[in-house]
Design brief:
The complex is a heterotrimer, with two copies of chain A (213 residues) and one copy of chain B (252 residues).
Chain A lengths: L2 H15 L3 E2 H6 L7 H11 L5 E6 L2 E6 L8 E9 L2 H13 L2 E2 H8 L6 H9 L2 E6 L7 E5 L1 H7 L10 H6 L10 H8 L12 E3 L12
Antiparallel strand pairs in A: 1-3, 2-3, 4-8, 5-7, 6-7
Helix pairs in contact in A: 4-6
Chain B lengths: L23 H11 L9 H18 L5 H18 L11 H27 L17 E9 L2 H27 L3 H11 L7 E2 H4 L7 H20 L3 E5 L6 E5 L2
Antiparallel strand pairs in B: 2-4, 3-4
The chains are: A alpha+beta (213), B mainly alpha (252).
């Protein structure tokens, strides 16, 4: 290992951590441990005219954006919110079976729906009403929108894999590939709308909360 | 893994599992590599013989073998015979050389994709080898809220629904085969006119089905129905001794 | 505003975003918009020996830790899942042959998909359906996603390793090599989809917990 490598490792760790890192933790990752402060000061110096600066707070170090440009820069942080399971299921049924009435959706799902799912999907802009069904009561028919296609990256509705294709692609396997799906299955008995919408900050998707050894 | 299966160790345990191969072409590819020549130079005749020998040997030890391995063995036997036939004999659309060439192509192409799949995977992967990072500290941040779901979640959600609905359909079918008390009640009520005399209970229940479970359900549901009708005053019921025949008749 | 300030702003945005940013989005934040690519290439150059590198994938740019020190950053590895050999091969075939149908993939691999590969790859977010092939049955065509490019650090599909080599050897043709075999086989092996999905020890994959679009 070289001194140059030590520097690279420090830069990468400070960058990937996304939050201040203890000097002691940094020391563990490098070869020439006594050089730590020297390395850090060199990095600080070489970044001083860049848009990213190395800052020391207490005995922790972190990269942060430069103070100079603070007033020129507003970051729009995307905050993604996950759709509730009920809403997702409703959306899937509308996508495949449109145009469809609310009570037809309820029949397929086997549960009565609160107002939530349909209102919410309409608010997001993924579904819209389109005419009424010619049966007693003339219920509204629901269809998906162009925004729906755009968000899910499909060209048109016919591109959605049909039942046989879903089956052939493994979607109908009971084997759950990922915990999340198991959760969905085991949560089947949950009452309709009691699931909290989970908020996910997209920026955190790739940043481990606490780097571990 | 195939080295265990040299020509000389036919007495040894033959414990290679076909599970380690992804189908007949994958097995052929492994066998071809054993010839230790460039795939384009591989002897198809020799390969066919090796494959057939492998499958025969495998069948002796493991009784179960997937159908497509056998289909391939049959095809290779055919190819082998074609390769050994006199050249000028015309049998069908493909010449043996064409078939040989096609098999080589299939092997080389699969080998090429196996190679690139390893190369792809050896690249530096996000979250395995390289990482995104950064921090929003010290910036003006405006939140931009959006709802999101991805196509996988959508398809999986729909698939789960399909599974759920399939399940409940099956349940209904199984259930309807059993004879319910309601059905028995309905049926016995229709029989009132014909049971004015004491009649054996067993003579009144419908013809037996071939399934034991259904027979039991018929007897028990009719029995419960009989008790119910007796209790409500429609029928009379008698039994001379324990385990004796049960007789019923309509009450006037 | 100066050119130096533009560069600083770009560095700061790329740093703060924590994931690839579209060129168009970057352009909006700077004064001399026509210089964007020049700026980015300069930044890329000045970071090339650092622990942080600027990488272009598709029309997006991102800072990421340097490949040189990947063995020293194992601390950041998140929960790992293994990808089956079948899934890896399927991914490679889709990447090089896209758009491609499931049965064309099966022709190349000489085996029916059975289960696992396509839904797995889609779950990770590396492939998606895109249109249907205009042949009887109109089967779904599969393609790789932008996230595939990002995760594998590929600038665009033309840059896939060894692509020209494969093409020159004629391996990018989708024809089923041995019509007779596949005809015979496809007629018979429906009953046989029980091949095990073998996990390979040396090939470890890392799937983010929340796949993004």
């Amino acid at each position: 290992m070289s001194e140059q490598k030590d520097t690279k490792i420090l830069e990468a760790i400070l960058f990937a951590s996304g939050e201040p890192v203890l000097e002691d933790d940094l020391k563990q990752k490098i070869s020439f441990k006594n050089n730590l402060i020297q390395y850090l000061e060199n990095i600080q110096d070489s970044y001083k005219n860049s848009g990213i600066n190395l800052v020391k707070t207490g005995n922790k170090w972190s990269f942060r954006t430069s103070e100079d440009i603070k007033n020129d820069l507003t970051i729009f942080k995307k905050q993604k919110r996950k759709l509730s399971r009920a809403a997702l299921e409703t959306l899937a049924i509308i996508a495949y079976q449109q145009p469809i009435t609310r009570s037809e959706i309820e029949n397929i799902r086997g549960v009565q729906m609160g107002r939530g799912s349909i209102d919410h999907l309409m608010e997001i802009g993924w579904i819209k009403p389109s005419g009424r069904k010619n049966i007693p009561g003339k219920p509204v028919l629901w269809i998906t929108t162009d925004m729906f296609l755009e968000h899910f990256g499909i060209n048109n509705l016919a591109d959605l894999p049909n039942k046989n294709e879903l089956k052939a692609s493994g979607f109908l396997e009971k084997r759950s590939a990922i915990a999340k799906i198991t959760d969905m299955v085991s949560g089947e008995n949950d009452a309709e709308n009691d699931q909290k919408e989970e908020e996910i900050e997209s920026l955190e998707d790739f940043i481990p909360e606490t780097p571990k050894n | 893994m195939l080295s265990e299966m040299g020509e000389n160790n036919s007495n040894n345990q033959f414990n290679i599992s076909l599970d380690s191969f992804e189908g007949p072409i994958d097995l052929l590819l492994e066998l071809a590599k054993k010839q230790k020549v460039d795939l384009s130079q591989v002897s198809i005749l020799k390969l066919a013989e090796q494959y057939i020998a492998f499958i025969n040997k495998y069948q002796e030890i493991h009784l179960e073998i997937a159908a497509d391995y056998l289909v391939m063995a049959a095809w290779l036997t055919y190819l082998k015979s074609r390769l050994l036939l006199p050249k000028d004999e015309k049998t069908d659309d493909y010449t043996p050389e064409e078939l040989e060439e096609a098999l080589k192509y299939q092997l080389q192409r699969l080998e090429a994709f196996k190679k690139v799949s390893h190369e792809l995977y050896a690249r530096s992967l996000i979250d395995r080898d390289v990482f995104y990072g950064g921090s929003l500290d010290g910036l003006n941040v405006k939140l931009d809220i959006s709802y999101s779901a991805n196509l996988f979640d959508l398809l999986k959600s729909y698939s789960l629904n399909l599974i759920k609905n399939e399940k409940s359909t099956q349940l209904t079918i199984t259930f309807s085969e059993l004879y319910s008390v309601d059905q028995a009640l309905e049926r016995l009520k229709n029989l009132f006119g014909t049971i004015i005399e004491w009649t054996s209970f067993l003579n009144l229940i419908p013809k037996f089905s071939s399934k034991k479970i259904i027979n039991k359900s018929i007897v028990s549901s009719n029995f419960v129905a009989t008790l119910e009708l007796t209790k409500n005053g429609y029928l009379e019921l008698k039994q001379n001794d324990t385990f004796e025949q049960i007789y019923i008749r309509a009450k006037e």
